[in-house]
């Protein structure tokens, strides 16, 4: 089912497959996603007036903020970029500028659209590549002594008039190519390549990044294309030629136009650690640190809606959905500048995870940790069985460590699972051969992880 056909309740149901709890946050992102489809179906000028309701998620690390945004983007099949607000610097300082997040979004969108176009032309490209490989195996027909029986081998001359024999020969080799019998056979192919590498420019320091990329692209386009011969296996030739043929069949101008439209109307930018640039998070006075408020003011026009130049074209950010998130331990949302607060009208406070949540996280989601580790063991032919009591003990251990040391939410489960099973993973398949069965019990968990809960430092194991 396509994302446009999903109702808010169905979107929540999809999120429930991977994320435990946080129902309020799921409801809000589901509404935001459905509203995008609704806006695109609003007639007339009103469509441009409807702005997305950006979301601010408040919650401790490891409660599911990033996962909700990432899964939402997958459901929507939309360009998605995750950035950390603390990585940006105020204009005038050396570092990443806030517009780079929009350029990353467009790049992601181009990759998405190109991937879809590649699927559309892959069948046509595969047919062309097959013929190119056949041409390399069976060179063009030349006049020579006629063969009366059998098939010619690679490089043999075929009489000019013997088209029937040539056709049967090509069919014979085509079947062998398709079956993979000839994948290791070496052939010589022509590979197209640009005549030069990057072109350096004196005095380019004053030019911005986008101008440099566009100029570089233009200069490379003006350079004549060269080809060189290379001897490779048929399997490798298929990959190389497929990529070249797909690039030839795809209209990149069309891809870029569609990518810009998709980024503008369906793009999602997830700004993590936004609490780190809140003024309340500052410890002490000024100093050499970049102004947090300056970063916020640079973010503001992007979130409000502005025009950004990218190497693929100009994009407006008015209808990009922004989801910001932060723990807000050292600050509170009201410490953000009022203008930025106003651009995130939907605020959702995510709940801290409790013991029952940890038990469900270990077993319920489609990508649950227990299922992941069982799949790893199964790849070696080993069966891993977790008793219900062992899972309860793992959850209890994770909650205890989070309470005593530092609360890193569900990420703590990675720590305890890794600590519990690394020894087994090391012994497979040398000491634990294929066909073996490993049973994880409560006693085993308590024995292997008992030291973790006693050691309050745990510096070796904190993620």
Could you characterize the architecture of this molecule?
There is one protein chain. With about 475 residues, the chain is an alpha/beta fold. The protein has three domains: about 5-110 and about 260-350, P-loop containing nucleotide triphosphate hydrolases (Rossmann fold, 3-Layer(aba) Sandwich); about 120-255, no CATH class; about 355-450, Helicase, Ruva Protein, domain 3 (Orthogonal Bundle), CATH 1.10.8.60. The chain is about 50% helix and about 15% strand. It has 16 helices and eleven strands. It has helices at about 10-15, 25-40, 45-50, 65-75, 100-135, 165-180, 210-220, 235-250, 250-265, 290-305, 340, 355-365, 370-380, 390-405, 410-425, 440-455; strands at about 55-60, 80-85, 185-195, 225-235, 270, 305-310, 315, 320-325, 345-350, 385, 435-440. It has a five-stranded parallel sheet with strand order 2-5-8-1-9, sandwiched between helices. The two termini are about 35 Å apart. The model is unreliable at about 145-155, about 200-205 and about 285-290 (pLDDT under 50).
């Amino acid at each position: 089912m396509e994302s446009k056909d999903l109702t808010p309740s169905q979107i929540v149901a999809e999120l429930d497959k991977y994320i435990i709890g946080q129902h309020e946050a799921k409801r809000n992102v589901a509404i935001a996603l459905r509203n995008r489809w609704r806006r695109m179906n609003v007639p007339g000028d009103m469509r441009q007036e409807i702005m997305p309701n950006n979301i601010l998620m408040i919650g401790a690390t490891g409660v599911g903020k990033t996962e909700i945004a990432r899964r939402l983007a997958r459901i929507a099949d939309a360009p998605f970029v995750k950035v950390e607000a603390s990585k940006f610097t105020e204009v005038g300082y050396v570092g990443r500028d806030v517009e780079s997040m929009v350029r990353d979004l467009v790049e992601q969108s181009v990759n998405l659209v190109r991937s879809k176009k590649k699927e559309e032309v892959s069948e046509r490209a595969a047919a062309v590549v097959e013929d190119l490989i056949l041409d390399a195996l069976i060179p063009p027909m030349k006049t020579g002594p006629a063969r009366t029986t059998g098939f010619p081998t690679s490089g043999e001359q075929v009489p000019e008039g013997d088209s029937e024999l040539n056709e049967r020969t090509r069919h014979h080799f085509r079947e062998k190519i398709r079956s993979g019998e000839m994948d290791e056979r070496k052939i010589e192919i022509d590979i197209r390549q640009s005549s030069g590498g990057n072109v350096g420019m004196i005095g380019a320091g004053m030019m911005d990044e986008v101008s440099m990329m566009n100029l570089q692209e233009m200069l490379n386009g003006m350079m004549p294309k060269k080809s060189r011969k290379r001897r490779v296996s048929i399997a490798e030739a298929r990959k190389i030629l497929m990529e070249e043929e797909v690039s030839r069949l795809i209209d990149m101008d069309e891809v870029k136009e569609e990518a810009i439209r998709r980024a503008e109307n369906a793009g999602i930018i997830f700004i993590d650690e936004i609490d780190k640039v809140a003024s309340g998070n500052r410890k002490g006075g000024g100093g050499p640190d970049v102004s947090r408020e300056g970063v916020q003011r640079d973010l503001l026009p992007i979130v409000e809606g502005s025009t950004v130049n990218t190497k693929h074209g100009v994009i407006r950010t008015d209808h990009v959905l922004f989801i910001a998130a932060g723990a807000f331990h050292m600050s509170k949302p009201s410490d953000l500048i009022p203008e930025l607060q106003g651009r995130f009208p939907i605020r959702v406070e995510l709940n801290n995870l409790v013991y029952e949540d940890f038990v469900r996280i270990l077993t319920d989601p489609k990508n649950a940790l227990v299922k992941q580790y069982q799949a790893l063991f199964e790849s070696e032919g080993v069966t891993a069985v977790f008793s219900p009591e062992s899972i309860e003990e793992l959850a209890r251990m994770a909650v205890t460590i989070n309470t005593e040391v530092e609360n890193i939410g569900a990420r703590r489960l990675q720590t305890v699972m890794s600590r519990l099973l690394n020894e087994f993973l090391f012994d497979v398949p040398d000491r634990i051969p294929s066909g073996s069965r490993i049973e994880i019990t409560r006693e085993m968990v308590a024995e292997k992880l008992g030291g973790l809960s006693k050691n309050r430092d745990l510096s070796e194991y904190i993620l």
